[in-house]
Amino acid sequence: MSTSLEQPTGEIGNEGMEREGDRAREEIEAKVRELEREKEMEANLIDLERQLDRTIEEWEEIKRYMRKQEQKISLLEEDAKDRVKVLKKELDKKTRDLEKYMKEAEMKSIEAEEQKQGRMEAETKVQMLSRKCTQMEGEIETLKAKIRFEQAKHTKALEEQRKAEAERDKAGIEMVKPLHSQCVIVDSAQHSEMKTVRAFKEHDEAERPKKPFFNTLDVEVKQMMQHMKEQAIKAIHEREIEKIKIENWQLKKRAKAAEKKVTLLEEGGKKFIKQAIAAEVLELKNTKVIQQSLKLESTIDSIAEKMVQVTNEEQHIDLEGCGLSLHIPPDSLPGDCSQFTLNMAVSRVQDYKLPAEDGILVSPVYSFCHNLGDRKLLKPATLKMQHCVARCNQLCIVQSNDMSSPYQFHIIQDGKFNDGDSYGSIELDHFCSFGVYLQWYCASLIWTIKFCAVLYYTNIKNHSFQFNLYIIPQLDAIVKELDSDIRVMDEHFKKGPISPFEFDEAESVIRLEIPEVPVSGWTMKHLNLNKRKSDDIVRMKSIIPFQVEVSWTGDQPVRKLTYDTVIEGAKQHHITVVSPCNFTECETIGSTTSISPTKITPEAFSDLLPPTQRDLMEVVGVDVQADWDIVGLALGLNSATLKSIKTDYSGKTTSCMAEVFTQWHDGGTSEYSWSKLAEVLSSRTVNKVGILPGILDKIKKQSNCS
Predict the structure, then answer these.
(1) On the chain, which terminus has fewer CB atoms closer than 10 Å, C or N?
(2) Which CDD domains does this one have (predicted)?
(3) 301-343 pLDDT per residue, tens
(4) Which residues contact 307 (CB under 8 A, 6 or more apart)?
(5) Could you report the per-residue pLDDT of 454-482, keeping only the tens digit for each?
(6) Higher pLDDT among residues 280 and 67, named by residue
């Protein structure tokens, strides 16, 4: 009985344990599910935090971009306001001139009216004079008739007088004949006879009655003189009448000219107002173009930018230092356009879609924004772009009509290139984005070595300086040919964003001279090669990349920094770069390349010179965590100098620290050396506020080298 009773009890116990185990298992599974849910929630929370961080970063970028755009828009608004003010001033001036011209025209019209009245009075006087002349002509005819009558009468009297004289002479001769015969006999009586005859004649003349001939002649002479006076008066009157007619004709001519001038002034005023309105409309269009160009600029990394007004006159536009030249011929604008705004931007290679994967741009990208719309130029403009390839057989020009990223480029076949000339040219009747393109799949190494060895540079606003280093194998086999190309190309690289280079055959070093170097604040990035090209280097096991040295000229001596670059599958090599800033990390070249941290070699300081300001910023610069004013006091600068530095640089740590080193180096204190700097930075006062340990080691190392 006891055995039979124990069996159910055991079964019941086992069942209870199983139920408890099931419950425990369920609880464990529930807890596991809860833990999994918690892990999922934690993962989701982490993702949300990351998304939030990204969103915050994007928002910060958007705010920075908006601030930049607001600043540009405000500048454009100010510029537009200034232009409107200038136009208003010009309009006011033209209006005043127009009013002045209108007043002058009114005065001239009044003068014309007065001259018209004078002309009428003169005509009245002329009519009166003409009537008087007519009367005088009648009187003159009467006088002429009287003169003819008197002349006839005088002629008749003369004839009668001659007859009477002839009769008297005949009678006198008859009386003298007896006396004459006696005179012949007696000569002495001849003289007395002649006297007697003379006496008789005088007696006859004395006794002859006087005739009115001489009185009539005096009257005729007086009449002739009077007639001559009247003729002179008439001629004077005729001249006066002719003069008055000429003056009237001149007055009419002046009045017509004044009326024409008034009409022209009215038309000119209307035309000027229309031009002012058209100018304001053009300003609004230009503002839209500027906004469009700002949209383009916001998506590209612009080196330089220039905005010009293009008219129908011949223009040469050069972007100095950027390798761009544009020639626009005269009378090239469309018929309905007198001018348009052209915004030119020069950018480095970035997010562009090229015609082929194995091709590459060998020039900056030159972008043009304008307000011509779809209209084209009547005469083609000539665009010249600088590139960096010595052999031009496989060069072509690409263009993109896109105004936003990504920019899709396609090849056009109208470009002109010449070996030894660093500029390519193209004739175009429209404006978009252009660049010079090299097709790698059909280009040999000698054609691409020039591109790989040259340097693009620019001084952008934040004083950063970016350049790319290319690793090219098999240099020794093409040194001589490369050298000849260098001599040809050297003269063409004196301007523009591309710098010339030299090859030192003895040291196997390529040297590049970089003009216009900033004093400080440089950064550097290596080219990010794709994996296919890295694999090509790996497969060429016998090729050892050569050493490249980038150098530039400056006022101060500069040390060398060595970067160890390792490429998997090839032997080690070194790229030695002269740089005024500390460089601790770099982008990787493909998936098989890495660059180690900077190594400062003692050989670089063998000249035993005191540290320059570049040296100080290179070694200490960006890594100093101490308060710059405490470092300045430790270096010996006074409080007034530090206060002035703080005011000038708004308390920015890096800028203030750079100025402290500059003041110290340029004679702000009596001593400047690596030993002095190591002593200052080792002091408790400075080190208490957080000098990085590595910095002090570097300074001590420099002190030992010196």
Answers:
(1) N
(2) Death
(3) 566 777 888 888 888 888 766 778 899 898 888 877 878 888 8
(4) 290, 293, 341, 342, 343, 344
(5) 333 333 233 233 333 333 333 333 333 34
(6) 67
8 A C-beta contact, residue 80 and residue 283: yes
Rounded CA separation 548/68 (Å): 39
Instruction: Say how many domains are in the chain.
Output: 3
Please check whether residue 66 lies inside any domain of the structure. yes
Question: Which residues neighbour 432 within 8 Å (Cβ) at sequence distance 6 or greater?
Answer: 367, 368, 399, 400, 401
pLDDT tens digits along 99-130 = 888 888 888 878 878 877 877 877 777 777 77
Exposure pattern of 419-436 as b/e (b: 16+ CB <10 Å)? eebbbbbbebeebbbbbb
Q: At what angle are helices 2-185 and 213-299 packed, to 10 degrees? A: 170
Looking at the structure, do residues 106 and 204 belong to the same domain, yes or no?
A: yes
656 touches 646 (CB < 8 A): yes
Omega into 406 within 30° of 0, i.e. cis? yes
In whole angstroms, give the CA distance from residue 644 to residue 601.
37
55 and 160 share a domain? yes
At residue 28, the 3 state secondary structure works out as helix
Task: Give the residue from 393, 410, 443 where a domain finishes.
Answer: 443
Domain that holds residue 409: 300-443
Residue 10: which pLDDT band, with cuts at 50, 70 and 90? low
Q: For residue 624, how far is the Cα from the chain centroid?
A: 44
Domain boundary among 201, 219, 237: 219
Candidates 526, 525, 563; CA nearest to 547 is 563
**Which residues have CB under 8 Å from 629's CB, separation 6+?**
642, 646, 656
**Roughly what angle, to the nearest 10 degrees, separates helices 653-663 and 628-635?**
10
Same domain, 6 and 136: yes
| Cβ-contact 508, 546 below 8 angstroms | yes
Q: Is the residue at 496 inside a domain? A: no
416: Cβ–Cβ under 8 A, 6 or more apart, which residues? 424, 425, 426
Rounded to the nearest angstrom, the gap between the alpha carbon of residue 593 and the centroid of all alpha carbons in its chain is: 46
